[in-house]
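User: Some background: our group keeps a shared notebook of sequences we're curious about, and every so often someone picks one and asks for a predicted structure to add to the entry. Today it's my turn. The entry only has the sequence so far, pasted here. Could you supply the structure so I can complete it?
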Amino acid sequence: MNKLIILSIVLGLVFSQSYKGDLRQYTFDQYIQEFNKGYQYRSSEYFMRKAIFEQKLAEIIAFNELPNQTYKKGVNQFTDLSAVEFKQNSLGYSKNMSNFRAFRNLSVKNLEVTEQQLQSLPVNVDWRQLGVVTPVKDQGHCGSCWAFASTATIESYAAINSGQLKTLSTQQLVDCVPNPYQCGGTGGCNGAISELAFNYVQLYGLTSEFKYPYQSYVSGVTGNCTFNQNKQSPEVALDGYVKLQANDYNAVLYALANIGPLAVAVDASQWHNYQSGVFNGCDYTQNIDINHVVVLVGYGTDSQLGDYWLVRNSWGTKFGENGYIRLARESKVTCGTDYTPLDGQACAGQNVPTKVCGQCGVAYDTAYPTNVTVIG
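Assistant: Of course. Here's the predicted structure to add to the notebook entry:
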């Protein structure tokens, strides 16, 4: 990274901190500078984006002035996008995707957690504190959240098992993981699921980011698979994955505390303006639209804001709390219904409404790789 880029990042962070304290003084031109938006001044796009930004800014300010909120909203790279654009460009699943239910069910593991085991779990878990979590990355305009979550989870298990924290190739998964049954999308930048990524790595291994760098950030286009085991030797291998039983809070808590981070599918439709705190903005009375894959890296309790799940996202470090979001962790399991499962974890032909539990459906679809080893 050259000095000019470093200086730009530092200035951007300083600029950001200067204005997020009083958003009423924050202008669209300042936003363009902070987030490096390349709009031509006073062009038609400039005015269109300005209108979207100013409407959202007003909503953010109004929300933050409400009493007794557990989280704050703020501006970020999504504030000038329409809801449709945000969903198309920043999540990881697609609609309109032969049933593949057997593939999903073969790996389901029902973790029977006793009351005694539950009572002995630590109050707080944060795998970052053990040095087994790589820095947050940014998927950009590619719907590759599934690949980023899978890669990050594999990185963590490799570090847990070997003590070596490696940065692995997300682009290899985006380009090379087949998705013939259209699970979570049609593949690559158009969505998939973590189980497919884990299956692929079981067969071929996963190389490093250095050997196969991420190229889909700007283009949003899936590349051709150019992975060559002779030239881009794999860095890690694994022998499969475990999928926890759907909506089992206790199993998720136990796995997080005793096994490691988890790749989870969530509804991130309302995350676009999250800034800090414990998010509770998913409405269980509405359709919980599972549409994004992230990594659960822990759980805990905020003395003022309550219990939470600690979630690593793939929208860069300017999103939320340095790239993370804390989701409300209810003491009593609360559930909703996903009436559009093809937006998310389902495969083609699986369009039956699905029960999903936890804030934004966080406990519904969870998986982790097994026996991850460092080989390069």
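Suggested note for the entry: The chain has two domains: 3-68, 101-374. The two ends are 25 Å apart (CA to CA).
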